[in-house]
């Protein structure tokens, strides 16, 4: 499963150029009113938002699966908390992006879909271990991205979002390690 986590990271990085073009938000009265007040995000900030949106979708998907499939109560509670955290983060990010006229996609990449499908074929302790390894690796990889965005974002609201979320990701990483995840590779 570690191979899948590495593939996920590589796929996410390779998709950066694809997400660099901001998608205009649908012209609804609410989004138009929000978008009219703030300038568009920079290319770098838009790319960050798109990548985080895809990651949130993936994390929500596999965490919901783990919450239903796992047998250990502590892993189930962790998965439920992870799904809730990523759902909350996705809502906050979506609201922030819409204020800048950016509509975020909510689809997993083909690589993420493949990893989620592979995870569905597993059960028992193998499933739990692989899920926790994915959580630890994803949190570790995302943590660096969020810390960088917290330092370099052009938009002050996105900068604050990235800083606050980095703290949450560090907690998520620590919790997954306590539950038995392998130490992430860099």
Characteristics:
186 residues, mainly alpha, Ferritin, 7 helices, elongated, disordered N terminus, Ferritin-like, DUF4142 domain-containing protein, DUF4142, signal
Overall mean pLDDT score? 84
Distance between the termini: 15 Å
Whole-number radius of gyration? 16 Å
Number of domains: 1
Number of strands: 0
**Fraction of residues in helices?**
over 70%
Structural class, by secondary structure, is mainly alpha
Model regions low in confidence, pLDDT < 50 over at least 5 residues = 3-36
Q: Give the H and E element order.
A: HHHHHHH
- Sheet with most strands: none
What general form does the structure show?
A: elongated
CATH top level label: Mainly Alpha
Instruction: Please count the helical segments.
Output: 7
Proper CATH architecture = Up-down Bundle
Percent strand: under 5%
Look up the CATH topology: Ferritin
What would you give as the CATH superfamily?
Answer: Ferritin, core subunit, four-helix bundle
Provide a concise account of the structure shown.
This is DUF4142 domain-containing protein. The chain has helices at residues 2-14, 29-35, 43-69, 73-99, 110-120, 124-152, 156-178.
Question: In words, what does this structure look like?
Answer:
It holds the Pfam family DUF4142. Keywords: Signal. Residues 44-175 form the DUF4142 domain. This is DUF4142 domain-containing protein. The chain has a single domain, classed as Ferritin (Up-down Bundle). Residues 3-36 have low confidence and may be disordered. The chain has 186 residues and is mostly helical. 42% of the residues are buried. The protein has helices at residues 2-14, 29-35, 43-69, 73-99, 110-120, 124-152, 156-178.
